[in-house]
Each structure stands twice: as C-alpha cells, then as structure tokens.
Amino acid sequence: MLNVSSSPRPSLPSHAQAWQGFIAYLTPLRLGLSLGLSALAALLLNPIFSTPLPELLGRTLVIGLLALLAFSAAGQWPRRLPPWLARWLLQVVVVGLTVPLATVLVYLVSVGGDIALLLKNPYRISGFIWIAGSGLMVGPLLAMGALYRHRDAEARSQALSFELERSELERQALDARLHLLQAQIEPHFLFNTLANVRALVETGSPQAAPVLRSLIAYLRAAMPRLHNEAATLEDELILVRSYLELMHLRMPDRLSFSIEVPDELRMLRFPPMALLTLVENAIRHGIDPSEEGGVIAVSAAGSGAGAPVRVSVSDTGVGLTQSSSAGTGLRNLRERLKMFYGGSARLDLTENSPHGLRAELHFFP
Questions:
Q1: Which of 133, 310, 340 is closest to 229 using CA atoms?
Q2: CA-based angle 346:350:356, to the nearest 5?
Q3: The predicted structure's pLDDT at residue 184
Q4: Which residue in 54, 125, 159, 171 is a FRET match for 264, CA 20 to 30 A apart?
Q5: Three-class SS of residue 312?
Q6: Higher-confidence residue: 119 or 283?
Q7: Closest residue by Cα to residue 146 from 41, 258, 26
C-alpha cells in the first residue's frame, strides 16, 4: 500500500538550544527595562500604601523579574505546541498568570508563609489587589509590545536576508553572462588572427613563418590572462602591444602604431580583451581595406580615483562604415562594459579627421 505522509514538521530545537534561547533573551536592556518599569510602579503605588517604599520596591522588582523570566521561558518551552495554540499567545497568558502568582509569593514571604495571617490583614489584601491588578493590566500589554517589536525585527532581518540573497543571485547571473560574452569574443579574435596567417601562407609570403612564431608566443602569453578577473589596463596594454607587433610583421609597410597611457591609469581594473577588441576592429575594418594602410594610436586620459576615464583607439584607415560599427565584437563589448563598470559606461565611435575612425571608452573606475 502506498503510504502518503503529510508535509514534514519543522525540526524542534534541542534542550541546549532552548536554554541558549532563554538566556539570550535576557539581555541587559530587557532586564533594565523590566526593573525600571517595576520601580516606576512602586513609586506610583507608594502614596496609597502604608508599606515603606524600599519594601514595596522590593516586591515590585521581584514580580517584574519573575514575569520577564516567565515570558522568556514560554518562548522556548514547551518545545512542541498544539496547532491551535500560537507561541505568542502562550507567552501573553503565562505573563498574565505569573503576575498574580508572583504577587502571592512575595506576600507569603513577607508574612513568613502564614496564609492565615495574610488573609486576616485587610491592608495586605488591598495591597495584593493593587499590585496584582496593576501587573495584570500592564504586564500582558508590555508582553504584546515586546512580541510585536520582536516580530518586526525578525521581518526586517528576513527581508534583508532575502535582499542579500537576491543581490548575490543577480551578481552570479551577471558573472555568467559576462563569461559567456567573453567566450564569444575569444574565438572571434583567434579565428581572425589564424585567417591572417593562412592568407600569408597561401600567398607564399616570407613573413608567414615569423608571424606564426609571433602568434604562438602571443597566445602563450595571452591565454592565462583571458579569464583573469583582476585584470588591469596594464595587462590589456601588454596584449595590445603584442597583437600590434604581430600585425606589423604581417604588413610592415602599411601599419605603424603608438601607445600612450599615463602610468597612474595603468593599474586600473579593466575587462580582459576589451581594448584588444577595438584594436582588432581597427585593423580589420580600417587598416586592411585601405591601400595606404595607416596608423593606430592607443591612448588614455583621466585622473582615476573615481574620476571619469577615457580610453581610445584611433586609426587613419577607411573610416566609419556599417560593418565597422555593427560587428558582434563591438556589440558584446558594449554589454561587457555596462556589466563591468555599470550603466554609465559607454563606447563611442566617431570619425577621425582627416579620415579614419576613433573608438572611445568612457567609464568610472
């Protein structure tokens, strides 16, 4: 026979955990508040009592302390409650019962345990009624107020926990998307470079062997950096220089380049392959189609330390065309910039005078 069980019950705290919860609730603030209210009750009741104030104060302090202990204990025991009884209701009822019982206790102590002597004295009966009545009016209200504050604090804590969890999930999703975009760029760059080497081999160019050797050396240096989450602009400049030197071997008479980046910007956090994508785009869409070739200039400006930074790649190639601005590499780069630096980061493409293209990254480090 198929046994269909109900949903599992929540695990109960152990005895040790219950004791820890009981003691943890008795913070100095709660003890001080309970004793302070008890002292205030003694001062307010003192004008109608013939009992000296120190004795009355001692009674109210004991009653207040016992009520607090009962409230804390009811929050932990019994560990399992029937479905119809809420924990908060049990705590309020326990406080309501503790106040008169504690009042009886302090009065029995004052008469040495002689119940008959207690019942024969109308002043003690009147005092018992005043103290117990005041406690019954104030005690449960204070208990409900404490429970409300506790529930409110728990709700805020849970909301904060949910918010932190949501932020962590969003961060993981952004990281996964960033890695996906980067994975799309890496083969794009590699296949383009290999296509250049193949063209040299097919035309029998004497530059084929040196270019291939430079490509192997470049890849050995580049591959460990591709997934480096702590990459800097300096790391990217090393890759860019290696790539431009590789391209210069392929077309020594048609390509020259310069790299001018201030030292204070070189240690800035920078997304891997971002600058290399712009340089590769300048070679492919600017220099290669031009009969005269051209110059590629890599530069950066900005003071860093929270100020806006501009990193640019300009070429003197054929200029802005539809293919140079709509490629997969640039589209992915724009998304990577926003995920890496935030929504304010952008990539601008403008005409470079007298001819060519200027690609400029704007971001706050």
A1: 340
A2: 135
A3: 46
A4: 171
A5: strand
A6: 283
A7: 26
How far apart CA 94 and CA 74 sit, in angstroms, is: 7
Per-residue model confidence (pLDDT) at position 218: 66
Question: DSSP secondary-structure letter at 264?
Answer: G
pLDDT of amino acid 312:
94
Task: Kindly provide the b/e burial profile for residues 90-107, where b requires at least 16 CB atoms within 10 angstroms of the residue's own CB.
Answer: ebbebbbebbbebbeebb
- CATH number belonging to the domain at 205-363, selected among 3.30.565.10, 3.40.50.700, 3.40.50.150, 3.40.1190.20: 3.30.565.10
CB-CB contact of 324 with 285 (8 Å):
yes
Q: Is 12 helix (H, G, I), strand (E, B) or coil?
A: coil
Tell me which DSSP letter residue 284 carries. Answer: I
Q: What are the tens digits of pLDDT across the range 51-101?
A: 889 998 998 999 889 988 988 888 888 888 888 888 888 888 888 889 899
Q: Cα(46)–Cα(49) distance, rounded to whole angstroms?
A: 5
The pairing of strands 357-363 and 309-315 is antiparallel
> For residue 219, which of 201, 242, 185, 199 has the smallest C-alpha distance?
242
Q: What is the dihedral of CA 352, 357, 362, 365, to 10 degrees?
A: -110
3-state secondary structure of 221: helix
Neighbours of 330 (CB within 10 A): 17
Best CA proximity match to 139, nearest among 91, 89, 88, 67? 67
Q: What are the extents of the domains in the chain? A: 16-166, 205-363
Residue pair 38/63 in contact by the 8 Å Cβ criterion? yes
The gap from C-alpha 17 to its chain's centroid, in whole angstroms, comes to 29
Query: Please, which pLDDT band fits residue 152 given cuts at 50, 70 and 90?
Result: confident
Q: Is 311 helix (H, G, I), strand (E, B) or coil?
A: strand
Asked if residues 99 and 67 have their Cβ atoms less than 8 Å apart, the reply is yes
What does the longest C-alpha to C-alpha distance in the chain come to?
Answer: 124
